[in-house]
Amino acid sequence: MKKMIIVFAAILSMGSYAQNQRFVYEYKFVKDSTARDETKSELMFLDTAPKGSKFYSHEKYVSDSLREERIKIGGRNFSGINFDFVPFVIEKSYPDYNTVFYGSLDMDQYKVSDGRVQNWKIVSDKAKIGDIEVQKATLDFSGRKWIAWFAPDIPIQDGPYKFHGLPGLIIKIEDQTQSHSFTLKETKKLSKNKEWQSESEKKNSKQFINVTPEKYKKQFLESRNDPAKGLKEMASGSNKIMLVNESGKPLDISEVIREREKNAKAANAKDNNILELDLLQ
């Protein structure tokens, strides 16, 4: 990782500053509240362009690219590709900051428009992160209390994940339990030739199920309670499915379902400290 850029040579207008910039954040999180010493870390990109921003995992970007290359040449073997990454993608449109969450549950992909108002409380506390002058703000959001440090001299009202609306770029934000934190580590200028594409544009928009946050929460809880529901429905449908392994050998669908349920429930038990805690409530 390159050293954090701590001095911004020029303060530009919000419109010009938002064009083709990449803000690289380190996301640290604790998945299991009973094992708080086990912290995971992942690099996340906030790519900004005149029409909006996209927030996503660096590992997801690499994994998706490799998988798509193999699919194009008819490959079925995805060994060596890392699938252990933060899976969601967040998009915000400018200047209204309409926020859209893209994520998967079971065998379906969802598109969730999140119009919740973020009622920030800006306080007088000021500090420095590196050489960046920052100011403190607090927020109750998604079942957690958040503390943010934003840079008034960087005139873009955006930040990691769904966070936005402060009068300056969010440099660091952390929840009160210190379970989830995002810290700016680097900035890059992206090529003007790099066309910003939303997930809906990049993929077939029909792949996504458009739901409200309330409907997504219902589906989220159903998926945790019955993690093999999609496979069961496919197996019991009129069009029978056949699953094969990397060598093309048919698999026993009943055994696959049992294994999916076992593994998913074990994983969920250790994933009890999710970012949006109110999804479990």
Automatic annotation (TrEMBL):
What keywords tag this UniProt record?
Signal
Read off the Pfam families from this record. Porph_ging
Superkingdom as given in the UniProt entry: Bacteria
**So which residues are the signal peptide here?**
1-18
Q: Which InterPro entries match?
A: GLPGLI
NCBIfam families on file: GLPGLI
Listed name of the protein? GLPGLI family protein
Species this chain originates from: Chryseobacterium soli
